[in-house]
Amino acid sequence: MKTRLAQLFCLCLLALPCLAQEVxxxxxxxxxxxxxxxxxxxxxxxYARDLLDAFAxxxxxxxxxxxxxxxxxxxxxxGGRVDLKFPDHPQWNADQKAGHxxxxxxxxxxxxxxxxxxxxxxxxxxxxxxxxxxxNGFTPWPYLTEIHAGRIKLIQANQIESLLLMAINDRVxxxxxxxxVVAHQLRLMDLAExxxxxxxxxxxxxxxxxxxxxxxxxxxxxxxxxxxxRSEQVEAIRxxxxx
Length: 243
Fold this sequence. Notes:
Layout: H1 2-21, E1 23-29, E2 38-40, E3 43-45, H2 47-59, E4 62-68, H3 70-78, E5 84-88, H4 94-97, E6 103-104, E7 109-117, E8 131-135, H5 144-148, E9 153-157, H6 160-168, E10 174-177, H7 179-188, E11 197-198, E12 205-213, H8 217-229, H9 231-240
Parallel strand pairs: 1-4, 1-5, 8-9, 8-10
Antiparallel strand pairs: 2-3, 5-12, 6-12, 7-10, 7-11, 7-12
């Protein structure tokens, strides 16, 4: 029995370097979403890049980042054309994921999604919102009942900048986005960060993004250990990106 266990242990040790030398394709979102991530001149960057690079360096993994539109990213992930997916969440596209054995990491990045309005519109409730803007690929979970009932019409766009201008110019009544992402984009547009603010009285989502994989559950397990054992390093990366 001891001999058998020793053989298995040796096989595991031999397998680890092989995986480390293999190129692992990380599917990521093409759309700009700083401080979490964006793609500039084909280069993936932001909090997610720094976090995943730090993890890969510690374990000797060779990550290649594959930026894709949100809808295509899911299809390529489920079809095995990318090996890891970030960001991901167990609740996202649950119907399309049915039948796939997807392994999710521990929480890797905190986020808040909610309604942002002009400061003078704070506290006016959801009844005033008839046109709600959001980014393609986003699902405004707390407002699906109103959307399906026709009380709110959803307007989607690829660019956050377009959505923010629509809200500032009253072409939509509000936007459903991440307030940190909105503040970052407003700075890039040379606009005041308080031009649009989160209405905390309206329903919003506080959750986390996850790393996921179908092919490499062992990488997800290693990432979980990294998040736990290198928590100070992870926290420093978050603080550097304002998260």
